[in-house]
Amino acid sequence: MGSERTEMRKRQTSVAQETPSSTQAQPDEGNQGSNACCFCWCCCCSCSCLTVRNQDERTRAASHEHRTDAIPDSEESSTPTLEDVNAWSQSFDKLMRTPAGRNAFREFLRTEFSEENMLFWMACEELKRESNKKRIEEKARLIYEDYISILSPKEVSLDSRVREVINRNMLEPSRHTFDDAQLQIYMLMLRDSYPRFMNSDVYKDLVQLLSEKSAEA
After folding, report:
1. In terms of DSSP H, where are the helices of 71-114?
2. Residue 5 to residues 17, 18, 156, 184: CA-CA distances in angstroms?
3. pTM above 0.90?
4. What pLDDT, in 10s, does the model give residues 153-179?
5. Which of 18, 56, 179, 206 has its CA 20 to 30 A from that of 65?
6. Closest alpha carbon to 71 in 26, 122, 32, 116
7. pLDDT digits (tens, 9 = 90+) for 184-201
8. Are 98 and 76 in contact (CB under 8 A)?
């Protein structure tokens, strides 16, 4: 009996000594597996990031091309008459109603580095004429990126209330998403830029040119 108990103790001691070593070996194997999985995940993540980045770059390039062609340097219009040009001095509304008036005013704004106000107003008018839902959403997004985003070099000056309205409207863009902003920019041009335009060389030279042509006729 004594020898059997001694033998049993030896076996228990032997098993107890072996167990820690096997327990220590398991975490190593687990760590290796975890590292391998982590490596694979990182590779997949990197590939995914590169794919998304490339897609974003292509989207931005396409958007840039679309924006470049969206509004021409000047609208097609017939040459204004002296009567037309004199009418522009009567009200800002009469100036903005005609393509020739908008072209002349836009040329003046360009000299003051505020052409983006007219471009934004024109983009809003174009949006209002759109009827296709998908096109409305796309144009609204481009207008936001070009004229509302604080990151845009062509950002127009809007107060915080109007910006909040736009941000809410952008959740479901429509033809009237920028109505409040368009009105605010219109009033800004009316009060600030229009009086200077009437006293500018751009306007005076045009009046003189048309007056001379009228006298010759």
Report:
1. 82-88, 92-97, 99-111
2. 18, 20, 93, 98
3. no
4. 999 999 999 999 999 999 999 999 999
5. 179
6. 122
7. 999 999 999 999 999 999
8. no
